[in-house]
Amino acid sequence: MSNRKLNVFLPLLFAVVLALGMFLGHKMPGSNTGGATVFFTKPSRGALQEVMDLIKAKYVDSLNTDDLQQEAIEGLLAHLDPHSIYIPPAQLQQVNEDMDGNFEGIGVEFNIVADTVNVISVLSGGPSEAAGVQSGDKILKVNDSVVAGNGITPEKIRKLLRGPAGSVVNTTMLRQQKAIKIPIKRDVIPLYSIDASYMAAPGVGYIKISKFSATTYDEFMKAIRTLDKQGMKKLVIDLRQNPGGYMDAATRIADELLEDNKLILYTKGKDYPRADYKTKRPGLFERGALAVLTDEGSASASEILAGAIQDWDRGTVIGRRTFGKGLVQEQYDLDNGGALRLTVARYYIPSGRSIQKPYDKGRANYEDDIVERYHHGEMLNKDSIRITDTIPYKTSKGRRVYGGGGITPDLFIPFDTSRFTPALTAIYTRNSFSNFAYRYYTTHREAFKQYKDASDFVKQFQTSNELLNEFKAYAKTDSIPGLDRLNAHDEQEIRTRIKAMLARQLYRTEGFYETINATDPMVKKAVEVVEQEKD
């Protein structure tokens, strides 16, 4: 057929094929009902989605389907491990800010007492300091919203104060009984994960890591370099009550403490091939005595770091058995603005042991594990620790280490139950120490200017009898029982806490930990252990 004849025939051929296709399509089963044809099959929605759609379309009453979906998702996840969780849209921003290590706001720390928002401290170098906000100011209004005396909550005030960097929030503050208007230009505010770093003794540095966020490694390196300039030869790392966070932050810190080409951990799951994480570079503190402090609140990334240090005989783990979380989660964003944090693998520390504690008896049993440890005596006696060993293992120095339920410390330090007498418990739960310290500081601000830094304050300041009696009088207004019958231990605990909270008022968490650690038995033991080791 010539090209000219083909050009004439092709349009006719296409028209016939199109007409035939339309006829056959009309005759196909389901073509008039919106059903799928044999050529293209719609993916099944699944029973769960079908039920949700039917409820939404047909149910007799109006329902909040978002709440229903959340309950359905949580019900589904309840049959998995305890660490696979759904994060609702309303909570996702705060969760991400916490892990990213920053948020956008004005840079103040506040508390709420009697419906009054009190500025406790102002971030040095932050937007509030630049605008002239002072600790002791009381926030009356944020833009057009009155926040004093109307049942304000921390969540509401955070929502009002936070906003895009560069935007302005107009505040009205009460200072010395005068209302003053202060516009504040919002900026990026860091959320520090290292609460304190200082020299705990000559040649002995101390670093407190509260979580492992995106900024933790950089904070750690800055702390190490600063301590090194101050003569640090030995180091104590405090991981107590550290719930974990980014695994990458823990492995990068481990790389600074262990020699090159050593396995830190490996991960493996059903659809998650084994991945090894090894040290790659010369570290800043590969030599020198090292102690790591742990307790029942040390979890996940904290256990990775402590476990690697223990397995390689790099340092001494001191304290109590860790939480026992050896599961790896990945976070998946959802179309509704929420996220699913799903367990995809287990991690194993260098000895090959998984430190994940059992969760086959349900979430309630899993969550009650810490309370159960206390009741059967583990918090007070190392011999009461119930080991669920996965792999018998001895380190190169012959130390037996245990897995299957957290990291068991090399040196056990019992929980101090004497800190929780009825009077002290009431003081803690009513937040009396913090509220008193704030009030005392704001009325005696000039007296504290004599201290040049946290270390100077710890050495020089003493809680006088006069100050103790002033606190007792304040605490009586909080209906604290037994203030007239305090034993010597309770009284000393109160003196120490008052000093620590005043140090926090002056020097934030750095001052608090430097003060409280001076009498902390676990920190004192760690300093003693590293001092005994040869350089």
Summarize the structure.
By secondary structure, the chain is α+β, with helices and mostly antiparallel strands. The protein contains 17 helices and 21 strands.
Which descriptors apply to this entry?
alpha+beta, Pdz3 Domain, 2-enoyl-CoA Hydratase, Chain A, domain 1, six-stranded antiparallel β-sheet, six-stranded mixed β-sheet
3D architecture notes:
- This protein has four domains: 48-79, no CATH class; 103-190, PDZ domain (Pdz3 Domain, Roll), CATH 2.30.42.10; 194-409, 2-enoyl-CoA Hydratase, Chain A, domain 1; 418-525, no CATH class.
- The chain has helices spanning 3-27, 47-58, 65-77, 89-100, 127-131, 154-161, 216-229, 247-257, 301-311, 363-367, 369-375, 422-429, 432-443, 454-460, 465-476, 488-516, 521-532; strands at residues 85-87, 102-105, 108-113, 116-122, 138-142, 145-146, 168-175, 178-185, 187-190, 194-201, 204-209, 234-238, 263-269, 272-278, 290-294, 316-319, 327-333, 339-348, 393-394, 400-401, 411-412.
- The protein is of the alpha+beta class and 535 residues long.
- The N and C termini lie far apart (95 Å).
- Strand 5 and strand 6 (145-146) form a beta hairpin.
- Helix 13 packs across helix 16 (488-516).
- This is S41 family peptidase.
- Residues 92-168 form the PDZ domain.
- Keywords: Hydrolase, Protease, Serine protease.
